[in-house]
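Box S1 | Example of a co-folding query
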Amino acid sequence: MVLFDRYGRPLLHLRISVTNRCNYACIYCHREGSWNDFKLNIRRELTPEELHVIAMASTELGIRKFKLTGGEPLIREDIVEVVSAINEVKPLDLAMTTNGYYLKELAYKLKDAGLRRINISLPSLRRSVYREITGVDGLSRVLEGIKAAIDAGLSPVKLNYLVLKGYNEGEFWDLVNFARETGTILQVIELQPEGLGLQLFNTLHSDLANLEKKVKEKASKVTYRKHMHNRPQYYVDGAIVEFVRPICNPEFCMHCTRLRLTADGKLKTCLFRNDIYIDLKPALKSTSPVEEVKKLIIKANDLREPYFKPTDSHLKLKMKLNELARE
Ligand code: SAM
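Box S1 (continued) | Returned holo structure for S-adenosylmethionine
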């Protein structure tokens, strides 16, 4: 079975934040939309057993693809157990996004535990720019982590290149070369107005439309990831390049197939929505946790809606930016 929301969008993915903790201090971080938890320093994290229950309930409702994020997932001491616990439900996909700092040590263990593929944040190939953006002098460790992920057989390995005006805009073709040489996929991401990204949006946001247009013209082939926001993938200069451009993009929202889970166990319907949180913790403590969690997933699915709709896209962005003025 598969659940559909009021807009006919199937629910296929769960994006799970496994921790709010992070060893980096990226200037742009949206904190997966859990900004308030960070401000309040909420540290409660779901255990591998609780995550297993949620994965079981999800699977029974047709959600068979999971992505682990954070904070930084790899600073959880039990991250390998977390991956194993979710892998026990035999997911169709089990992926992670990480800054890669601890990947060299963990890549093989994660692969053995059931992780299939990985996204590694790589905002710059220049040591000083990387440090300025992330707050950590970690580029060489991360490059080793990328190699370890490839060697361990995680596939595909994707490089998340978040483009920031005045910092790394000029590095696109260097990163395309790096992706080609390493056999990785380059994911070019537009800054989103959430968390620190909201506070710096007007200064750091780079509109990727022109860059994408150039890449499209040069590409030998284009494919679309239908159930992943209909994102285009371009085959260019021997590399695969994907663009993630959600801002004022109804097409992106119309093809959204996910729910989000915060590190302390709340379902969230959209990165940008901070008014809908459905707490799974009471259900997890009940006598039939899988059944109770399923009811809450169904409730959350009924509340899903595209954030940017064709008629009000730009208005929504203005409202988002106004949130900052009110804080
Ligand atoms: N610490 C991990 C990492 O660095 O990948 C996982 C958490 S991070 C929040 C997950 C992804 O969100 C990263 O690929 C990062 O580039 C992206 N991201 C963070 N803040 C963002 C923002 N304001 N706009 C767009 N993407 C953002």
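The mean pLDDT is 93. The first helix runs from residue 35 to 39.
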